[in-house]
Give the backbone structure.
Amino acid sequence: MIGVKTTGEIVTTFSTTSAAGTGTLTIKVAQGSKTISSNTFTLSLSANGIWYAYVENVKLSGAAKGVATVTVTTTVGTATITGKAALHIQ
């Protein structure tokens, strides 16, 4: 849980198998159709690695109390994987 008027952090992890090269991660937090935070990273990746992205001091712009959805989209080459999690704002 995170308070409406506070900042927090988001950490996501993923692994690569045969994929290598440039990877792009997009971390988006939304309440309904309203995006309240968005960050994009570009990483150099090698095959068979375990990676993480860490976003600190995340301010949820215009957040309201309730549930928000955190969507992480990872693209390496032509492969894209999307994961979602719930964030409870109070």
About this structure: The radius of gyration is 14 Å. The chain has a mean pLDDT of 86. The first strand starts at residue 7 and ends at 15.
